[in-house]
Amino acid sequence: MNVIEIEERIDELLARRIKTADFIFEFIEAYGAPKSVIKQLRGGQQDAFGQAPVLWKRNVHFKIASEGQVGRVLTELASNKETNKQKVRYIISTDGNDFGARDMKSGEMLNCLFDELGVHFGFFLPLAGIERYKIADENPVDIKATGRLAKFYDSILQDNPTWNGDEKRHALNHFITQVVFCLFGEDTGILTAGLFSETIATYCETDSTQAQKVLTDVFTAMSLSEAARGDDCPTYARKFPHVNGGLFKGAPDVPRFTKGSVRYLIDAAQLNWRDINPDIFGSMIQSIVNTDQRGELGMHYTSVPNILKVLDPLFLDDLRQQVNANWNNKKGLHGIMRRLSKIRVFDPACGSGNFLVIAYRELRAIEIKVINRLAEVDGYAPPLWSHVELTNFYGIEYADFAAETAKLSLWIAEYQMNSRYEDAFGKRTPALPLKETGNVVCGNALRVAWESVCPHNNNPEVETYIVGNPPYLGRQMQTKEQKDDKEELLSGIIENYKSLDYVAGWFVLGAKYIGRSLHKTLCSLVATNSIVQGQHVAILWKQLFDLFPIEISGGHTSFLWKNNAKDNAAVMVVIVEVSKKGVKPVKKIFSDEVSVSSKNITPYLTVGQTIIVEPLPHGHRGKPVMNFGNMALNGGSLILSAEEREETIKREPSADRFIKKLMGSEEFIRGLERFCLWIKESDAVEALKIETIRKRVAEVERLRRASSDKATRQFADVPYRFREQREATVEAVIIPRVSSDRRRFIPCGLVDSSIIISDSAFGMFDAPRWNFAILSSLLHVAWIKGVCGKLKGDYRYSNTLGWNTFPVPTLSDEDKEALTKTAEGILLARDTYFDKTIAELYDPDHMQRDFPELWEAHQRNDEVLETIYNGRPFKNDTERLEHLFARYSAMVGKK
Fold first, then answer.
1. Per DSSP, which regions of 125-225 are E strands?
2. Which one, out of 91, 394, 593, 709, has a CA that is 20 to 30 A from the CA of 780?
3. Is 3 exposed, middle or buried, given 0-12, 13-18 or 19+ CB atoms closer than 10 A?
């Protein structure tokens, strides 16, 4: 079920004018309700008034209203206890004339005539599992326009099979953008109202074979001035103005049409394209060529607030502050106008142009504000032409259609801002002919020379801002082509580059571009937070600082970057701003809308001296060794479920002594049970006499001998054992390798010698309990968050980077005794809630309220530990990290 199909079903339903009780069943079916659910709902009981409320759990509570009573029924449904109990998303009512609904999640209301429901079909898309941004809800024409274009696009491909390959891809993409421009143009006054759609309807609707010629004639005419048009230019084409600007330049390439494709084009033209939002429409229109995204039209949208998190601190905030500071200064305001004309914005992964469009729109808004003020204080006459020109916006985009769409989105944005300018000053730049931009290039940004797209400028007043949201792609997700891109770019520059995320290439090229720039150039990019964590800091940033005269001049710490698409793959991201050294004496780092100023920002996006933490093979100051747990090594047959253990012991009781509980991250956190065969060399002969064990061990031997890895084959000689055999004499600390970063503390625990720790966790075997106190602290969490990488949004613990580097001061016997007590306090508090799993105990939504003894035990632990480190508890994580980095620097300096 996708957006296009939903729209078609709703339109068909309304066309049949079904306004009886059957309406709601066909309505929810249009949004993908299963037939079994509909059958069940149809069997519902009528109420005392002979009406039949319909309650679809978690989705809809519907009731027919008497004439004029839709509002009253909605109020009744909103307060109905079943609405809340069943967590209903929508309450809906209609009297056959009026229609009303409320989204119980967002609180938004919909009130319209029943026959107008099709216009608002997008309001109910969450019923189909498609969440939407509010901006899209407010402008349904974006979704409807894209849906109708998608039908048109599919029809063109069906009529022209040869256009469905690489050879004609650019021609098709460019043709679609030309069509969109015409649809937008006739609804906004760029073209005569209705000119394009009326031409198609008049000359092509009854004879679709004429469409190819008609559009060829029209597009040819739009590429030429009236004087340059020959006598063979038909009368209908002469009505179209000269557009050019690159959009209609050269001989047009138009596909053939059938009756269906003509009909789809006419349907698309019936919408009012004046209200298109260029900042969202660009993303939506891309989905036309990606049929697998059709179910999420409009959902792959980078929200304006997220884009402004990049643009505002980079240059827009500074411009706005300059306006405020010069509000009564005519010379200063004129200087701002000159500055606006010198600002260049370059997105080397521009997609459909969202960052460029928003930057253009915001700069034009500042310009309008300044001109308004100049008119007040200086009698300034607003100029006809804007100081903010599209020629100052540059982009590189890999996908051809997205590059074409970016150009179109910028043209649309320019027209709409010119309309705002006209509203403010009564003047507007002539819409036609379009001005040539030519600054969005289709290509691979890691292969194209950035200077060839956005050349360096010798004018000292020119400011260049590199922005964008490049593809992230960790090492395991990269295609061969992308790995080749990295090799071509990074080999010989960055050691160990193969471990880097794909987005690292943009930071390298950004640093190189800045290094060669003569004047003010800054680069601010969105990336997954791994770019400022773990190995990326040592591999990427350390070498970039050595290679180029750059520094991190701003940034935003981790936040969720997502769209509201179905199956949303939201990621934790950071924003990293880079400039030449000294360009920004005072740097700002943002976190949760709060900014901190500093003279220096580290590559961990912390303030203070730049200290890069590198993995250490061993710990310092006599800290216990932390090792990986035990790896089965092709030894799946060495691992047993609880049921398999029970069956084995029931069949052969003597096997019990060779079976131990196996605990990894999931088993420890979730309370799951697994077991393993644990056979030492001295017991191997006896163990292999047991048939069940012998069969399992034989399978392990077979797999190990068949391995392509030499080390694995060597272990085929001891198939009865794990690769390692690490176990505690008394007890061990278990530390999960991956755990949720929602938890305030990293979950770790103590296990006795009867439990084997698997390789999904680390173990500290027979370590003093005061180490457990350190591992369970906020101080240690701050370090792990700062220097270790993350897996999606989870802590990714590392023994060499997280534990071995963690600075532990020299502890007195009294310190160790105090920490041992707080560690045991945590363990005793957990025992108080013995029936709860670690996952339940450390759920951040419940820990403090539901498990107060555990919460208080952790507070005591943190107070004792931080007093040992600092003489008092730290105020926040920023203070903790500053202290720890200073200790780390002293620690590695003494090794």
1. none
2. 593
3. buried
CA distance 688 to 695: 9
Please list, in sequence order, all residues whose beta carbon lies within 8 angstroms of the beta carbon of residue 271, skipping any fewer than 6 positions away.
141, 144, 145, 148, 183
Strand order in 343-347's β-sheet? Answer: 440-442, 393-397, 343-347, 463-468, 521-528, 571-580, 550-561, 587-591, 594-598
The mean predicted confidence, pLDDT, of the chain is 87
Q: Which two tokens stand for residue 498?
A: 């193969």
DSSP, collapsed to helix, strand or coil, labels residue 613 as coil
pLDDT of the residue at 149 = 80
Residue pair 695/721 in contact by the 8 Å Cβ criterion: no
Asked if 838 and 846 touch (Cβ cutoff 8 Å), the reply is: no
Q: How confident is the model at residue 7 (pLDDT cuts 50, 70, 90)?
A: confident
Q: Could you say which DSSP state residue 406 is in?
A: H
Euclidean distance between CA atoms 7 and 288, whole angstroms = 15
Angle at 746 between CA 741 and CA 749, to 5 degrees: 145
Q: Is the pLDDT of residue 885 over 80?
A: yes
Cα separations in angstroms, 758 against 294, 530, 664, 675, 728: 43, 26, 5, 10, 13
Two tokens, residue 780: 């240690």
Contact 153, 294 (CB under 8 A): no
Whether the predicted pLDDT of 51 surpasses 70: no
Q: CA 417 → CA 42, 147, 161, 172, 278, distances in Å? A: 52, 26, 39, 29, 11
- Dihedral, CA of residue 798, residue 800, residue 805 and residue 811, to nearest 10: 90
State yes or no: cis peptide before 433, omega within 30 of 0: yes
User: Rounded to a whole number, what is the distance in angstroms from the first to the last CA of the chain?
Assistant: 62
The pTM (predicted TM-score) of the whole model is 0.74
**pLDDT, average across residues 835-861:** 95
Are the C-beta atoms of 829 and 854 separated by less than 8 Å?
Answer: yes
What amino acid is encoded at 610 in this protein? T
> Is residue 336 classed exposed, middle or buried when 0-12, 13-18 and 19+ CB atoms within 10 A define those classes?
buried
Number of other CB atoms surrounding residue 459 within 10 Å: 9
pLDDT at position 133: 39
